[in-house]
Amino acid sequence: DVQLQASGGGLVQAGESTRLSCAASGFRFSSFAMSWLRQAPGKGLERVADIMNDGKIAYTDFVKGRFTISRDNAKNTMYLQMNSLKPEDTAVYYCNAEERQHSYWGPGTLVTVSS
Question: From its phi and psi, is residue 99 left (phi > 0), alpha (psi between -120 and 50) or beta?
C-alpha cells in the first residue's frame, strides 16, 4: 500500500524552528517529485516547496529564506526545515508525491505558531 506520513508538527513560538518529515512507502520514492503544501484555517491549499526527482528545488515567495526542503532517497523521506516561524505559518502541512500518472497524499501534520 502507498503511504505518506507527515510528522513533526506541534506548537512552536514565533521566531523558533521546527522540522517536518514525510516518510514514504509503497512506491518508487526516488522517481517522484515531492512537495509540501499547507492549508491555514479558513483558507485554501497553497504550495510551499517542491523538490524534483533530479534535486531541483522551488519555493513559494512567502517561505524563501526561511524554509528548506530536502529529500533522502535512501530513507524514502522528505523534510521541511522551517526557521523564523511566524503566526501566519500556522497550518496543516501536507506532503505530496507526484509523477506523470500518479499523485499521492498523506494525512498532514498541524503546525501552530504562537505569537
Answer: beta
Q: Mind listing the pLDDT tens digit for each residue in 46-87?
A: 999 999 999 999 999 999 999 999 999 999 999 999 999 999
At 87, give phi and psi (nearest 5°): -55, -35
4 and 95 in contact (C-beta within 8 Å)? yes
User: Grid coordinates in use for 93?
Assistant: 502541512
Distance between CA atoms of residues 100 and 59, nearest Å: 21
Strand arrangement, sheet containing 18-25 = 3-7, 18-25, 77-82, 67-72
